[in-house]
């Protein structure tokens, strides 16, 4: 029996069977957010507010550590001086939406969902570049390509008015609360 190599470089002695699984995570995100926006619209019409903040949102909107550093210092230490003003501006824009809809349970769930996506995408795609000293231009492109654009595409039915700046603001909100770092 003669061993052969396929075009992927695998050494095969007999039959080779490849199975590919494709999961459309974008559709899952899209569907879940759409359901939450429909629920939010209903709660808003009925003025169905709540008095407490769900635990996941509380966790993502409060400092993760006792480290007392402002966002300016964190971005300066990470070599991101050029975006400090923008970071502060967009963080404030996002915080305004967060505050405006605080007492709607579905809005809290939407914010948790989006903040968790931003953090997950940041840790997978951006933070490794930060750790490897990538250029700011590369980092900014990856933020748009891997965080901002996918989230914007998933916001069908958005009745809260999210924009790209709000998604950027989520990044800096999480940075300010020590959930994301700009240094190794």
Percent of residues in beta strands: under 5%
Mean pLDDT: 86
Distance between the termini: 51 Å
Shape descriptor = globular
Largest sheet geometry: 2 strands, antiparallel
Layout of strands and helices, then pairs:
Blueprint: E1 4-5, E2 11-12, H1 25-46, H2 55-61, H3 71-77, H4 84-100, H5 105-131, H6 136-153, H7 164-176
Can you describe this structure in just a few lines?
By secondary structure, the chain is mainly alpha-helical. 60% of the residues lie in helices and 2% in strands. A hairpin with a 5-residue loop joins strand 1 and strand 2.
Protein described:
β1 and β2 (11-12) form a beta hairpin. Mean pLDDT is 86; it is low at 21-25. It is globular, with a radius of gyration of 21 Å. The protein has helices spanning 25-46, 55-61, 71-77, 84-100, 105-131, 136-153, 164-176; strands at 4-5, 11-12. It is an all-alpha fold. The chain has one domain (24-176). The termini are far apart. The longest helix has 27 residues, at 105-131.
Task: Note the main attributes of this structure.
single chain, 184 residues, 2% strand
């Amino acid at each position: 029996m003669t061993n052969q190599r396929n075009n992927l470089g695998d050494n095969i002695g007999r039959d080779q069977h490849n199975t590919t699984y494709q999961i459309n995570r974008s559709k899952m995100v899209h569907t879940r957010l759409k359901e939450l926006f429909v629920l939010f619209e209903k709660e808003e019409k009925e003025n169905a507010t709540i008095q407490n903040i769900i635990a996941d949102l509380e966790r993502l909107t409060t400092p993760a550590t006792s480290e007392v550093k402002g966002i300016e210092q964190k971005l300066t230490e990470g070599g991101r001086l050029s975006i400090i003003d923008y970071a502060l501006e967009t963080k404030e824009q996002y915080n305004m939406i967060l505050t405006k809809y605080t007492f709607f349970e579905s809005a809290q769930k939407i914010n948790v969902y989006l903040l968790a996506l931003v953090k997950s995408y940041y840790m997978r795609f951006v933070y490794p570049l930060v750790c490897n000293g990538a250029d700011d231009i590369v980092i900014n492109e990856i933020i748009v390509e891997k965080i901002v654009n996918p989230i914007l595409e998933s916001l069908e039915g958005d009745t809260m008015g999210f924009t790209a700046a709000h998604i950027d603001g989520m990044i800096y909100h999480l940075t300010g609360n020590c959930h994301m770092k700009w240094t190794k």
